[in-house]
């Protein structure tokens, strides 16, 4: 990396700001806190702005280029969301304020609960979980408590399809369940025979992602849910892929009992880099009293002169609190803004266009890459990033080469059931021109693989850094290269 650190750019005596002459007596700083003692870099305002602006350009971003990272729904985040969440009435309130002074905030949360209920078909929603995985943990804990209340503690088994996101088995296992993987059939649906053989009195529930992480809608979803219900189990829906269904299908209507919604995916909030996200959970009527709280409710309906008065409650058999206060309120404001801006027809349009974009791109890409489940996809699709005639090239090499073409790589090596998986999710916010450019890059890379495979195996060639040890990069974070000498 050629970028200099802000210390290397420092020039003695250069200043970013000059205070006006003091009109009060000066008082010395405590020893160790003087400018000389803390060794701060000396730069002009322009130096600082250029330094950080240039640094920010070293990373790929949704605002900078196409980001087809499958399952993450890296759609464009409208800037109006940011404006709304920074309004002082939202950003300057404190969670310990009396509810009489935050009625606007409570109204926003109440309305968002109602909208998510309407969009998803669930009876009641709690906004508090911090992300999708956190919502799954809520779901698993609700399933546990529900069976305990029915004196069915022998129900210890949660079924999870082999295409599932790793957080599904992780949260089930954290909640004390035994995780049983379910194979997929040749069309990418849950294998019904395997499901049937697991439908017994030890079944606590099934965690199902639909559309699943192959980007495929499970064609037997109604039958699958019925089988689990008949066996006495509950069905948790991993709602990370709700984007594809917006305005078209309400998961609550087809029998899912519990589901989380990744507001930072479907309802557009910046994500990546660890948060903050938001993973509200919806449940059917019979599970409403198990939700985590607090939940916003109307305490007084009001009348023609007085607006409704909002308050909070904890459901009777609640699994408890999952988060301090009310969850990530700033994210809730962004999701509210996004839903309000689009309205019902706009939301449906999002679902339709996300599916159209994915199918358009899939048809182009499958000419050069093997598509193991060749049927109409939903919002994303998975191809193999490898060819029999070029054994030296792997999915990772194709991804790294895409960086040279200015694109963020697709998701690699997930789902696990596709060999050398490349999972592409274009989202509805990309234009035909962008999709065509990406397809052209994929085609060019397939040709390069035959002509000069080293171009791929040594890629990226143009990025600020070359290949990193990704495990080490995630485990050994260096977030600060400087500590004040006085500490
Ligand atoms: C993103 C994702 C999750 C986890 O959601 P987070 O908000 O990242 O915790 C779970 N399942 C699927 C299918 C996902 O894509």
UniProtKB/TrEMBL annotation:
Its cofactor is pyridoxal 5'-phosphate. InterPro entries: GcvPB, GDC-P_C, GDC_P, PyrdxlP-dep_Trfase, PyrdxlP-dep_Trfase_major, PyrdxlP-dep_Trfase_small. Residues 353-451 form the Glycine dehydrogenase C-terminal domain. The modification N6-(pyridoxal phosphate)lysine is found at residue 265. Keywords: Oxidoreductase, Pyridoxal phosphate. GO terms for biological process: glycine decarboxylation via glycine cleavage system. Its EC number is 1.4.4.2. It catalyses: N(6)-[(R)-lipoyl]-L-lysyl-[glycine-cleavage complex H protein] + glycine + H(+) = N(6)-[(R)-S(8)-aminomethyldihydrolipoyl]-L-lysyl-[glycine-cleavage complex H protein] + CO2. GO terms for cellular component: cytosol; glycine cleavage complex. GO terms for molecular function: glycine binding; glycine dehydrogenase (decarboxylating) activity; pyridoxal phosphate binding. HAMAP family: GcvPB. Belongs to the GcvP family. C-terminal subunit subfamily. PANTHER family: GLYCINE DEHYDROGENASE (DECARBOXYLATING), MITOCHONDRIAL, GLYCINE DEHYDROGENASE, DECARBOXYLATING. The glycine cleavage system is composed of four proteins: P, T, L and H. In this organism, the P 'protein' is a heterodimer of two subunits. The glycine cleavage system catalyzes the degradation of glycine. The P protein binds the alpha-amino group of glycine through its pyridoxal phosphate cofactor; CO(2) is released and the remaining methylamine moiety is then transferred to the lipoamide cofactor of the H protein. This is Probable glycine dehydrogenase (decarboxylating) subunit 2. The lineage of its organism: Bacteria, Bacillati, Chloroflexota, Anaerolineae, Anaerolineales. The gene is gcvPB.
């Amino acid at each position: 990396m050629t970028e200099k650190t802000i210390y290397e750019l420092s020039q003695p005596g250069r200043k970013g700001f000059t205070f006006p002459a003091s009109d009060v007596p000066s008082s010395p700083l405590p020893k160790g806190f003087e400018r000389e003692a803390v060794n701060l870099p000396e730069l002009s305002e322009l130096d600082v702005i250029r330094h950080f602006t240039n640094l920010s350009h070293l990373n790929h971003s949704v605002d900078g280029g196409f980001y087809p990272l499958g399952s993450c729904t890296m759609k464009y985040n409208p800037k109006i969301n940011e404006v709304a969440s920074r309004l002082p009435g939202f950003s300057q309130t404190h969670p310990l304020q009396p509810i009489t002074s935050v009625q606007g905030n409570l109204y926003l949360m109440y309305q968002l609960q109602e909208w998510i209920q309407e969009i998803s078909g669930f009876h009641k929603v709690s906004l508090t979980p911090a992300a999708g995985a956190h919502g799954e943990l809520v779901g698993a804990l609700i399933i546990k408590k529900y069976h305990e209340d029915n004196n069915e503690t022998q129900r210890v088994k949660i079924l999870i399809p082999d295409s599932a996101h790793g957080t599904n088995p992780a949260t089930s296992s954290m909640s004390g369940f035994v995780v049983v993987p379910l194979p997929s059939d040749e069309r990418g649906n849950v294998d019904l025979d395997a499901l049937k053989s697991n439908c017994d009195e030890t079944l606590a529930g099934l965690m199902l992602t639909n559309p699943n992480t192959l980007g495929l809608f499970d064609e037997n979803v109604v039958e699958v849910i019925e089988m689990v219900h008949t066996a006495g189990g509950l069905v948790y829906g991993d709602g990370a892929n709700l984007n594809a269904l917006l305005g078209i299908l309400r998961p609550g209507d087809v029998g899912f009992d519990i589901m989380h919604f990744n507001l930072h995916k479907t309802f557009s909030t910046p994500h990546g880099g660890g948060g903050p996200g938001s993973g509200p959970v919806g449940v059917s009527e019979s599970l409403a009293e198990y939700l985590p709280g607090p939940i916003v409710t109307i305490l007084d309906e009001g009348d023609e002169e007085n607006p409704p008065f909002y308050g909070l409650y904890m459901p009777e058999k609640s699994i408890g609190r999952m988060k301090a206060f009310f969850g990530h309120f700033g994210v809730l404001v962004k999701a509210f803004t996004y839903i309000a801006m689009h309205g019902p027809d706009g939301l449906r349009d999002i679902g339709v266009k996300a599916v159209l974009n994915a199918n358009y791109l899939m048809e182009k890409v499958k000419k050069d890459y093997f598509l193991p489940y060749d049927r109409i996809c939903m919002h994303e699709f998975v191809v193999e990033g490898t060819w029999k005639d070029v054994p030296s090239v792997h999915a990772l090499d194709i991804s790294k080469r895409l960086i040279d073409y200015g694109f963020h790589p697709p998701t690699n090596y997930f789902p696990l059931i596709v060999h050398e998986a490349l999972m592409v999710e274009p989202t509805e916010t990309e234009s035909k021109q962008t999709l065509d450019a990406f397809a052209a890059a994929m085609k060019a890379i397939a040709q390069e693989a035959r002509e000069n495979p080293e171009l791929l195996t040594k890629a990226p060639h143009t990025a600020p850094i070359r290949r990193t040890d990704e495990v080490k990069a995630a485990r050994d974070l260096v977030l600060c290269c400087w500590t004040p000498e006085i500490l």
